Amino acid sequence: xxxxxxxxxxxxxxxxxxxxxxxxxxxxxxxxxxxxxxxxxxxxxxxxxxxxxxxxxxxxxxxxxxxxxxxxxxxxxxxxxxxxxxxxxxxxxxxxxxxxxxxxxxxxxxxxxxxxxxxxxxxxxxxxxxxxxxxxxxxxxxxxxxxxxxxxxxxxxxxxxxxxxxxxxxxxxxxxxxxxxxxxxxxxxxxxxxxxxxxxxxxxxxxxxxxxxxxxxxxxxxxxxxxxxxxxxxxxxxxxxxxxxxxxxxxxxxxxxxxxxxxxxxxxxxxxxxxxxxxxxxxxxxxxxxxxxxxxxxxxxxxxxxxxxxxxxxxxxxxxxxxxxxxxxxxxxxxxxxxxxxxxxxxxxxxxxxxxxxxxxxxxxxxxxxxxxxxxxxxxxxxxxxxxxxxxxxxxxxxxxxxxxxxxxxxxxxxxxxxxxxxxxxxxxxxxxxxxxxxxxxxxxxxxxxxxxxxxxxxxxxxxxxxxxxxxxxxxxxxxxxxxxxxxxxxxxxxxxxxxxxxxxxxxxxxxxxxxxxxxxxxxxxxxxxxxxxxxxxxxxxxxxxxxxxxxxxxxxxxxxxxxxxxxxxxxxxxxxxxxxxxxxxxxxxxxxxxxxxxxxxxxxxxxxxxxxxxxxxxxxxxxxxxxxxxxxxxxxxxxxxxxxxxxxxxxxxxxxxxxxxxxxxxxxxxxxxxxxxxxxxxxxxxxxxxxxxxxxxxxxxxxxxxxxxxxxxx
Length: 715
Prior knowledge:
It is a single chain. It contains 21 helices and 29 strands. It has 715 residues and is an alpha+beta fold. It has 3 domains: 377 residues, Electron Transport, Fmn-binding Protein, Chain A (Pnp Oxidase, Chain A); 136 residues, UbiD C-terminal domain-like; 141 residues, UbiD C-terminal domain-like (3-Layer(aba) Sandwich). The strands form 6 sheets. Strands 5, 6, 7, 8, 9, 10, 11, 14, 15 and 18 form a 10-stranded antiparallel beta sheet that branches. Strands 20-21-22-24-23 form a 5-stranded mixed beta sheet, sandwiched between helices. Strands 25-26-27-29-28 form a 5-stranded mixed beta sheet, sandwiched between helices. Strand 1, helix 2 and strand 2 form a beta-alpha-beta unit. It starts with 31 loop residues before the first helix and ends with a helix.
């Protein structure tokens, strides 16, 4: 990174001008190697010189190091499955701390990026009309954002004669992964009609030397381009009527490219332009050797090829960012036509699984960086937090203005149409001054301000993330909006003199109006619950919020999961197991609600006994446990007057649903869920033998010993 003083700046610090203000960096990272050199100079890079297997071992080391807040890793001798050593080093955990993410982006605070973007989005047209020179800085910035086309590029210093994906150090990180998968691929596609390119990040499973999967979900631009290409006969290429979709997968390059590929950009701002914006210099791009695409000139490796519309292959399972394996699916195939690379390339990869992981820090950076943009587009939004422990899409805490009745609800509904926020499963609206990243404050607010009868809004049949395994159908699930804001004076629930004339009040408990402390259960009540035979353990989060664990017989095995029910002939056993699970949950729920003193227990969370409720850091583990396994439409249960709610977060046993049972002429029980339960995948757990191996190597490799929690290696 070149700054004004041409020196390497310590992580999280930048040079300042004569009045002490931080200077915007002049030039970003030229390439990945430059960033690695700076990490090493700052003491943030660990080189591992011994041979390390890309089969499970490298990923296990990376997982250990990222969970310890350790250094970036450079495996100098990655060992391929055939026993040979790759000619290319493997880099992992490059962005595994907030400090390194800020270093990669050249900022002290992520919001600096968003503020600069807003400056581009809302130029003062009136001022520029009277003083045209006021628009010169904006024009200069726009010119710097245009990528620069070059004829020679570092990414094409070497053109591989016989391209072979299996020679690249592409890890397989989890025991049940279907294959070796690229996890930081920059995938270049093109709109067949307009010629506009897109840079996205879609994992790519290697099938063989010249074929890999393209996991672009239907909501992504890659899928849009593929569909447009398929229906645009005038741009057909290849032999006969075959339409070939040009694709390039780029590995490495300046860190800004990685952030550009996954950022929620407006449609009129390309990823290449945003990378130029981040680095404050024009991104050099070069024409691919065998495809009609322009690729980053400073990429380390470029894999060129094409996809054929309609051709798919089974992809997955894959240990994903929810901490579970994403299910198998049919996805397009990339046919490799060329591989080019730098003379001394480095291949960057990441590992995703049970949080915290490197992708969590990247995701938090993007969320904070684009918050000013979100504030600009949605003026009521003050702050927002999407906890990495929930897999991002499962929970959003939104601090919002609340001037008029139900304003916060309107704001949250609007956010469901804002880019990737459309996947949000549970949105919680809080007051504008609420510290959104403070979990304890969050629990206080939910306890004090949420009346389940009126503050929980279920939105049926909404868009779901393809990776959302708890959803009853792929890409479709119900959503939950929780209003935890202070009632404004004009709200009918507030009552009193603040109401408009002629408006009657709506009955609301005094504690919900903020006039009293919210009620809760007594201490001896928890002892009663703990004494129930179905209860393994209890944790009182707040006087109205109780977590209960229970043991479910025949639940999905965390190491293997449980396969879906495909045919009626195979239903009997799993249907009975699913009924037994639900009977256990309902029995426990009703037993607790029937206890004396339970009337003020507004929140009952039920989950499996694989979480230790009184262990260190349990609150973060609970976030994962309660949100990843939970489906709004199937697992939210109210009592008769909706004053209390039970939240079922036990690992679901697959079930075809009542509709399928009825269609097949099968008997239906009251315990059968209305909605189906798909395959429930295994949890991302390392191979115990691999854990033992790297434990024994820790001292020699240079990373610290770590005592793994029992649920990381065994269940």
